[in-house]
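Why run this: before we spend reagent on co-expression, it is cheaper to look at a predicted model of the complex and decide which construct boundaries make sense. The entries below are exactly what would go into the expression plan.
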Amino acid sequence: MSLANGRRYLAIPGPSVMPDRVLNAMHQAAPNIYEGNLLDVTASLWPDLKAIAGTQHNAAIYIGNGHAAWEAANTNVFRRDDTAIVLTTGRFGHGWAEHARQLGVRVVITDFGKSAPIDMARAEQALRAEPNARAVLITHVDTASSAKNDVLALRRLMDDLGHPGLLMVDCIASFACDEFHMDDWGVDVMVAASQKGLMTPPGLGLVFFSDKARDVSKSADMRTPYWDWLPRVDANHFYMHFYGTAPTHHLLGLRAAVSMIMDEGIEAVWNRHARLARAVWSAGEAWGQEGAFALNMKDPAHRGHSVTAMRLSGQDGTRLRQWCEHEAGVTLGVGLGMAEPDSPEAGAFFRLAHMGHVNAHMTLGALAVMDTAMKALNIPHGSGALDAAARSLAGN
Amino acid sequence: MSLANGRRYLAIPGPSVMPDRVLNAMHQAAPNIYEGNLLDVTASLWPDLKAIAGTQHNAAIYIGNGHAAWEAANTNVFRRDDTAIVLTTGRFGHGWAEHARQLGVRVVITDFGKSAPIDMARAEQALRAEPNARAVLITHVDTASSAKNDVLALRRLMDDLGHPGLLMVDCIASFACDEFHMDDWGVDVMVAASQKGLMTPPGLGLVFFSDKARDVSKSADMRTPYWDWLPRVDANHFYMHFYGTAPTHHLLGLRAAVSMIMDEGIEAVWNRHARLARAVWSAGEAWGQEGAFALNMKDPAHRGHSVTAMRLSGQDGTRLRQWCEHEAGVTLGVGLGMAEPDSPEAGAFFRLAHMGHVNAHMTLGALAVMDTAMKALNIPHGSGALDAAARSLAGN
Amino acid sequence: MSLANGRRYLAIPGPSVMPDRVLNAMHQAAPNIYEGNLLDVTASLWPDLKAIAGTQHNAAIYIGNGHAAWEAANTNVFRRDDTAIVLTTGRFGHGWAEHARQLGVRVVITDFGKSAPIDMARAEQALRAEPNARAVLITHVDTASSAKNDVLALRRLMDDLGHPGLLMVDCIASFACDEFHMDDWGVDVMVAASQKGLMTPPGLGLVFFSDKARDVSKSADMRTPYWDWLPRVDANHFYMHFYGTAPTHHLLGLRAAVSMIMDEGIEAVWNRHARLARAVWSAGEAWGQEGAFALNMKDPAHRGHSVTAMRLSGQDGTRLRQWCEHEAGVTLGVGLGMAEPDSPEAGAFFRLAHMGHVNAHMTLGALAVMDTAMKALNIPHGSGALDAAARSLAGN
Amino acid sequence: MSLANGRRYLAIPGPSVMPDRVLNAMHQAAPNIYEGNLLDVTASLWPDLKAIAGTQHNAAIYIGNGHAAWEAANTNVFRRDDTAIVLTTGRFGHGWAEHARQLGVRVVITDFGKSAPIDMARAEQALRAEPNARAVLITHVDTASSAKNDVLALRRLMDDLGHPGLLMVDCIASFACDEFHMDDWGVDVMVAASQKGLMTPPGLGLVFFSDKARDVSKSADMRTPYWDWLPRVDANHFYMHFYGTAPTHHLLGLRAAVSMIMDEGIEAVWNRHARLARAVWSAGEAWGQEGAFALNMKDPAHRGHSVTAMRLSGQDGTRLRQWCEHEAGVTLGVGLGMAEPDSPEAGAFFRLAHMGHVNAHMTLGALAVMDTAMKALNIPHGSGALDAAARSLAGN
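The model came back. Tokens follow.
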């Protein structure tokens, strides 16, 4: 007998829950790719995506995943032997850095650990040490650590120092979840993907770029026909937007998802994520009063709003995840990169996503399931977590 | 800004949440109705439906709703001026009785109120008073009051009294949710519908009947070609099962739903409903420690496992429902027939369903949303409800 | 190896091909049945359905099939021992008559055979012979014979004779396919169903009725709570439209289908069916120049526009159907009632539907497949059929 | 009034018609990407895809389109300043060549025109002229010209000459449509995509490669992390197959499509395409007896089986396409690259696809619609085309 049989909730940090409206929009006969509705749908996406990103400049959609968006960004920006400053606050900064390194870029990493944001003093040292770096790469929110960085502060620091590099930001985990203003924050390149805040199945990578980045790309020497962003944003023919056949069904799905965001309003979407995140943190802080439970990020100001990394001890994270999935219908995310795979603590970490198509019922239900799991498994934990979460959402 | 945007949970007592597997099974091109897969699918349904009902006798599927199933049952059983004993424990017994009365049956009601089960002493009086009644009509679980009756006890009473009437049971709210054994409990006619425990959109009414009921029906004088159950169970041609065109897509959907039940096992399905119901009651009992909150049924032994009727006071039930729907994505059921529509208490009642495709996440989430609502709306309530529900499901 | 693997075309006269838009509309989470979108959708259906029927009077939707619509019509109109005049032109008139007879109505049939429309001289005799008949029942288009009757001519005949009976018309096979004007043609009761011209899965029966029929129904003595049409059209509460739970997903599907019809325009829909039917007839007349092939209805003026009954000889109809299905992906309809099941000619008959969601490609493709089948099976047939169909649709 | 309203047939050479089974498989909640069903589904794809390709070696799936598959192939094979021999027989050979050139490869093209296959004598000259070329690139079937090349003959020629280059074949238009045996024909690299014979929405590019190509790739100097095929085929972790998040829904859809192919049998699939193609050609040859109609490829042995390029004169190709789409529900493909865009003949060309999920009904219907269009538009054409197609499929 399992209490999991019912509508399951995949609460991993991507792919997120796909709205019925998105899945229905994708359940269509193949459209004509030479004229008609698909072209109109695609044309309508650019302004809306830019509005969500807070930019008036350039947006390209790649058939690909988030890593594809990294590759698009890197190949359009760098020349071989260029220097990249990478400020890492979890796992994915290292991934993006490694990508650049494999391309032949000289990568200089400053690592802020797995549970802290960028420290601006150390960032200043990094910037001063590499005044000619082509670009500075950061994650807005790291999917693994759930660390969120202050993008605007870094921009101001770069401006104060007169650093000429491009500011490149990975918003894969935060796009359409956490507040973000690309132009106002002086971001040059921003990458995102379809399967998180955009609530569309994996298969699209997005790259937004400033006119400065666009100019820089003209002298980059690693562009390939597939990744080159210039023909994609200056497409004379529809197929040039995608260098070949368009991702027909994904575009239809993305249109539905973006319309849901526009209907709700991006500010309201950010606010919803913020309030749900705070409810999660309230529960987490209560659980942490007793036993090993801890939120990975100590400072709420540096926690992302779409995913929360957590830990127990020993194998309790794994036991918790398995109970939630098999006994209650909630799939939590595995801990990623927080401990070495063969370390005794590897099974301690896990994550709860609250990104995209997520509401109070889903999040409170996930917290209640976690609380039940800890009781069922006799994992010591502070009491009153659900009450705290409810109070948080009730606003009193 | 609303915290409701996400996957909404319709927690009304029917239609229940339709599994993706059911909706996908219905998303098919129209099938041939003369040969092939549809005929095989339909043939495979009878034994499975009978197994779920606990009968080896007769099963008919009508294109219709639950009220259609009432009409099928009544027209096949009664002759004009026959007497029906109806024992009511909420609202739907009155509905079925009224149906029979409109057909010309002499209906004798014993009403056990809106928050109590059948009292066997009074039932005995009713049976003794009408020794020649053609049938005794009861609801297994009343969807409005959530009262559950002891069917076997009534059967034994009828047997003890030598009452010759047919025992007819409305299982619309309980089928595939609460334990039920048609043959072992001596039930002659049982009616159900697709949209509750069977997790299929409204549109099918089911009628199961014993061989005794089958014999009685031959002398009934209100059978019509559509309702007559004999050609449906003795169909020489496929179309006779449905007196005309088969409900193609509903049969495909029902097949998926029934397979889910068979895969899980009906005992496990009942057990899942029982455990989720107990979690709901645990929360309810905690809330009831302070303020006006109350579960409608006092005795757990007489609470149905698929729906729980509850109350607050004044308009607080309505306020709670609206908050849950608009702020958190959970739609609770309205109170039905618990107070006169224009009474000051009409807005006090509401219901939480936990029927069919429902798991720990969905139910705990709904309880947490309700708790949050009471906090947000400053409705006095006992504390610790969510903790109690979690402990209940954790089994400790 | 089969040339059938691809998108199959079910060309039987109901269920017809379901548009993607309809299936998508039905692929939805269960809606609230107490308030919101479903109620709005349902309210919007009545005026559109009446517009398609050409009436300003009453429309009821039953969860049921076409036979259910018969039962709704008969039980609302007749008293036991009333007389019904039935004019049959194929099979389904007999079915409706038999239904009335089983209810206790005195049925007087005039049978015009299986390949002729109503002859008005004989109809006059029938009307004069039963001047007090409560109603006259006919089919607009018989699904089995494809005979179409001149409804207006019959109405005028009744008026000329001063016959007081209600004119009741079965439009199940013709609704939203063949031109029809309920009010202008003086029709009192019209029945239809969802799965043919309305392009929605089987599961809904429709009954339209005049105010005169409404008045008559008040004295009918076979109304049951489920069939009674008065509460359905005068519903104080939403559930009264359907005597219980609404057919949620079918209503959503029907809304999509009706919107498609309204978008195209009912005149354009009729015209499309007329032109496709003429293309079928052109092919049929060419095939009939040699061998046994024949269209069942000789006079184009009396052929329905949604289905064409045809014949070959011996078992060739069955051989043709099987080849089309297994070798080419087209399922033709079986012949229905054109010969006794055990007659040597029982396998000679078959039908091609061209109803609802049907266009030139589908119909021409079906004709081309039939032509190929006759060649592959060495069934003698006239040449040039496809050329004739193409010329017919080309309009030259 | 339009005869197009009904189920439309998109008969362009990709995206092809998506089977309901594929679209249903994609209409799923997001799956877990760390364990469970998705991983099993993906693991099951490799052997089946290899079986369809006729190889026992390596297969990689990229999130991308056909052009992405080109880029994957080129970047894994070439070093800058390598020489590529490209033998073009239409448009797409030029596209692949241009791709290589943009990467920095020295490309030597031998162009066989727009309506002829590779001539082996000229191919021999090309091979002899570049004995050190790293690779020879050809299309199996060119989507624009519908020319099909004899891959095995070219392989034998290379072997006879002792040419050491890799044989790289673009099977985007032919995969799972035209007979192909990768290993037996000595092909080193083969590229395909999801949206044609594989009947899955655009979004996946496939690259198959021999062990020889695998060895060569180790010294290629343009591999990027995204395109590098080695980690994809030697993946230690599931995400490495896709360098990041897997294309969840596309994999589910592809699984359904591949199962359909395996169920039918690849030989039967090829045979079905062959027979449908011959029916198209039969019609085309009849049309060509009068007026300007012509099939682009004269020799049936060199016509692809999945698409047929055709021409009329002046703007008649465009007029024909528009009539078919707007009046009859069939969308034909535009002519691609057969004339300069501003030439007077640019509107003469068009294409009929018959790829993937296609049967006799669909193809015969498309031919009948084209025939009707020519009649309606008074475009001179030979008679008897439909009869010829029917005879062709009837096998007599």
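Chain A has two domains: 9-16+265-394, 31-263. The radius of gyration of chain A is 21 Å. Bring this page to Monday's planning discussion.
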